[in-house]
Amino acid sequence: MSGMEFSDGFVSTEHRELHHSAAESADPLSVSPLHVGPKSPRSPKSPKSSKSPNSPRSPKMQEKTGKASPLAHDRQSHSSVDGRPKKGGSGGKGSWGGLLDTENTCTVDPSDPNFDSSEECEQSNAKTERVDFEEYKKKATIIVEEFFATDDINSTANELRELDMPSYSFYFVKKLVSKAMDRHDKEKEMAAVLLSALYADYIDPPQVYKGFCKLVESADDLIVDIPDTVDVLALFIARAVVDDILPPAFLKKQMNDLTKDSKGVEVLKRAEKGYLAAPLHAEIIERRWGGSKKRTVDNVKAKINNLLIEYVVSGDKKEACRCIKELKVPFFHHEIVKRALVMAMERRQAEGRLLDLLKEAAEEGLINSSQVSKGFGRMIDYVDDLSLDIPNARGILQSLISKAASEGWVCASSLKSLSLEPEKPSLEDSVARAFKMKAQSIIQEYFLSGDISEVCNCLESENMTCSSELNAIFVKRMITLAMDRKNREKEMASVLLSSLCFPADDVVNGFVMLIESADDTALDNPVVVEDLAMFLARSVVDEVLAPQHLEEIGSQCVAPDSIGSKVLKMSKSLLKARLSGERILRCWGGGGSSRPGWAVEDVKDKIGKLLEEFESGGGVREACRCMKELGMPFFNHEVVKKALVTIMEKKNERLWILLEECFGSGLITMNQMTKGFGRVAESLDDLALDVPDAQKQFARYVERAKMAGWLDSSFCFNKSGHVTENGTC
Q1: What is the pTM of this model?
Q2: pLDDT in tens, 612-646
Q3: What are phi and psi of 572, to 5 degrees?
């Protein structure tokens, strides 16, 4: 024990053990070592030794006093030091002091034989590190607050560098994100951008990793002050993965290190399944807090063109790769490949240099293989237009593909076939381009006026041949423009599509063209999948398309992870939902031209009044006109149901005439007829309470409907009134 000697007969075994146990139990970082002076009093239980130099009986003592001092037996001390014990029970004269005395004034005695200099250094270093870390925490907090006030990335980076404590950078990451989580979207976006800017150059990657680990571990504490911690922190993690400052493996690795009931697990699951697994997740995540709103397709294309021109002049591949990385559009790297190939075909002397850049970017993983293949694929589609300016464009592109495949950075088998002889276009390019311009003008005027008849007249004059290709182009252009606008225009586009009466095949081709260009559309509209799925589902609800047309579109988008498959999957799930027709119709406000959608009860009431008026002597044409004005063709099964119930209750078949007229004119389709008859079959038990022979009557009307072609011959219902499929009763 440093600073204290135990000599035989001077300190008892009991005191030695007591002192030893107390010293071991004390925290070495918070309790200073005990210091006992060289004149420590002996234990009251220890025998007095006559050999002790300080003993009154010792020869030395007797020499000093000459004889026994009369003060030897005096209990009163004449010392100026107060020997009484302190209030805490220790520290008086002739006492041991507190066993866990933590006074900082105690020092280590270097003359102690048990003195260990390394122990003193370790304690000193630990104390210094604590002080340094506390100081860093204070300064880091100030830097974060100043950054949110100034939005100056360069100043923040310089201040962080001046701290010169890279081993504590993880705390800066944690503090920055946790502070931003409790603020507005502006600060969240600022924090994400700052982390991406500081990564590697100012904050080491392991420190960023550790900072996010700390955040996930403290999710249970953060949620006390920030109720939406799970969602916000998950989005920060997803953003870090998208920005390439966190590896995707972070999620699974951290998941294994946390307890199942931890909020951190919820955060990681939300990041993985809620954000990173979503279609076009990179664009959605990047724009979630308002980031990159000013970035458009044209801006990105211009920057790509500039960096390629600079590279051709300088030949600096490192600088070109840095510029590609700074664009932060990994989902749009196919444009870099396409533009580099176009430039190589236009400037044959720069061909080798440009191919070297693409090779370098592909081998370094800067441009992934799917983006490389996509870029070449787009070139193959674009080569016919390029042939107008570059003679033998097909042959040059074929040679570029061969060179890239021989060097191993593109897989030729994954590309579309490229024949040297161009296919004869079915429609002249000049005609298509002119129609696109006119179609855009027609659609923009329609969004302002809402005049459907004017659109029909313009289309008749512009597309006098009723070309199916031009119809598909119009569908694509209309929906593309609507997706970039508000719900009012989306609703108007759906209403117009159902009013134009285009052949279903033309509408299908229009949607296929939309899906094929969805990757580019996603730059301006991150929710393109959701919008296209809703337009497709709405087309089925409005009976512009039949359900089987979805399968036809799916056959042209066969890749399981393609945009088309995701759009189809989402549209089918929308159509399968309960009351899907009503929900889909009202998703954008319903009714078209900004008119709010009908409530279901209002529609039922209007249908009831319509049938009552017709039954009391109204005309068939007037009834059909009223049904059209409702603008809810997907709800015509309610007309069929109410008409059948009224016929069976009143034994009056006048309404049967109305159903015949509606089916003959196409106002009520077989699908709606089947649905209406099915709903009546399901309510037969209740109807039998008022109409005892309801089941017999209904069976008779089902047979009449089959004979008239309203119902398929397989339609059947069992005795309980439930409709069965495949004719099984």
Answers
A1: 0.39
A2: 888 888 788 888 888 887 766 767 888 898 999 99
A3: -65, -40
